[in-house]
Amino acid sequence: MWSLALLSMPAKAEWVEASGEALITNSNIAQAREEAINQAISYATLSTGIQISSQQQTSNGNLTQNNFAINRYAQAISIQLVSERIQGNKIYVSLRLDLNDDPTQQCSAGQLKAAILIPQAQIKDRTQLRYGQLSGFEEAISEKLGNSIDGYSSTSFTHLHVTERLDINQELTDIRGYRLPSWLSEITDSQYILLQQIIDISIEPTQSTFMGLWDEAPQRQFQFKLSLYHGISGETVWSKTYSTSAPWEFEEQAIVSPNSDQFWRSAYGRNINLLMQEATRDLDNTLNCRPLLGQVVSRQADRIILNLGRRHGIRVGDKFQVVLQQNLPDRLNEMRAIATKSRATVKIEQVSEESATAVLVDQNAAYNVQINDIALKI
After folding, report:
1. pLDDT at 2
2. Sign of the C-alpha dihedral, residues 44, 68, 108, 17?
3. Same structural domain for residues 27 and 151?
4. How many domains are there within the chain?
5. Which end of the chain is more exposed for a tag (fewer CB within 10 A), N or C?
C-alpha cells in the first residue's frame, strides 16, 4: 500500500507526501526501512514525474542527505522523513518532498500520449529458466512492464501482445542503423515498438543441505535490455540495459510461478518491479515533448480517419496538419520514408478510443492526401 498527496504552495511551489512499506526480514529493521523509503520515493517519482538522480538515497535505512538532485522541470527539492512506525512484521514510513516548478521547462499543455506495442520478451539463454522452472517468465515480464507504463506513464500507453513473440533475430537489432519493418506498427496502430531482451537470470552457485534447502539464499541476477523503435521510420529512438540482483528465497527444487503474488513479493520480484518503474521514467523522459505522429488510415471524399483517438488525448475540435509521406529507395534499395509539408489541415469531428474522424478544411489543398500520410497536431 502507498499513498500520495500533492498540494499547491505559493510562488509556484508544491509539496508531495508519499508513504511506503516493507517486510522486516530476519529482524533487519534497517534494511526494511531503506526498502520502504525507496518504495515511497519511487512511487512519488512515478506519480508526479520527478526524477531522482542521486545514486545513494539511504544508508543503513537512514536518509543521508537533506537534498537530492531531482528533475521534474523543477528548480529545487528536498526530502524529509516525516514518520515511521513498525506494526507486526512490517515497517511503514512517510516522506515529504518539497519542490519549485521551473515554468520555462514545461511542455505545452495537453500533450498527447503515444501507443507502444509490447510483444513478448525474448530470453538469451532459455536454460536459465530451469532454476525455479519459470514457465511463462517472458510473458510475465512483458506484462509487468506494460502494467507499469499504463499505470504511471504520462506520455504513453501500451498495446500488450505478451503471448506473441516477434521472429526477429536479436543480433540484427544490435547492428547500428537497423530498422524495424513498418508493418509491425501498422497492423497494431502503434506509434512505437518496445523490444525487450532478457539477457541474464543466472543464479550464483551455493551449497545446499541434504533436505534440498539452501544454507543461505543465493543471489540471482536479472539483466534486460529495452529498445524503443519508431513505428513509421523503424529507427531506434532509445535503448538502455538494466541490471539488478537479489536473494533467491525459494527452495532449490521449488516450482515458482512468475505470475504468482508470492514471486512478486519476494526480494527478487520486488527488485525487478523497481527496474520496471525506472524504465517507465526513462521512457517518459525520452518521449516528453516529442511530437506525436498519427497516420491517415482511411479516406472518403473530404473525410479521413486517423489512428489517434481518445486514449491518445485527442478531442473533438482539435486541428491537425497533414504531412505527405513518400517512400524512396536508398543505396541498398531499402525504402525510407520522407515527409513533405502540405497546406492540408483537418479538424476532428468524431473521436473513439483509438481513432478519430476528421474533415478536410481546405479542399483545394487536399487532393494529394493519401493513406499512410502523417498527421501532426497544430
Report:
1. 40
2. positive
3. no
4. 3
5. N
- Do 52 and 193 lie in a common domain? no
Whole-prediction pTM: 0.73
Low-confidence ranges of the chain (pLDDT < 50): 1-11, 52-76, 102-105, 109
Query: Domain of 79?
Result: 4-103
Last residue of a domain, one of 287, 312, 339: 287
Cell representation of residue 219: 543471489
Whether residues 260 and 353 fall in one domain: no
Query: What CATH number did the domain enclosing 120 receive?
Result: 3.40.50.10610
Are the CB atoms for 312 and 115 separated by under 8 Å?
A: yes
Question: Distance between CA atoms of 39 and 85, rounded to whole angstroms?
Answer: 15
- What is the predicted pLDDT for the residue at 1? 40
Same domain, 133 and 273: yes
| SS (HEC) of the chain | CCCEEEEEECCCEEEEEEEEEEECCCCCHHHHHHHHHHHHHHHHHHHHCCEECCCCCEECCEECCCECCEECCEEEEEEEEEEEEEECCEEEEEEEEEEEECHHHCCCCCCCCEEEEEECCEECCHHHHHCCCCCCHHHHHHHHHHHHHHHHCCCEEEEEECCCCCCCCHHHHCCCCCCCCCHHHHCCCCCEEEEEEEEECCECCCCECCCCCECCCCEEEEEEEEEEEECCCCCEEEEEEEEEEEECCCCCCCCCCCCCHHHHHCHHHHHHHHHHHHHHHHHHHHHCCCCCEEEEEEEECCEEEECCCHHHCCCCCCEEEEEEEEEEECCCCCEEEEEEEEEEEEEEEEECCCCEEEEECCHHHCCCCCCCCEEEEC
Query: Which residues have C-beta within 8 Å of that of residue 229, sequence separation ≥ 6?
Result: 179, 180, 192, 193, 194, 195, 235, 236, 237
Which cell numbers in the block locate residue 5? 498527496
- Is 158 among the domain residues? yes
What is the model's pLDDT at position 49? 52
On whether residue 109 sits in a domain, the answer given is: no
Is the Cβ–Cβ distance between 133 and 257 less than 8 Å? no
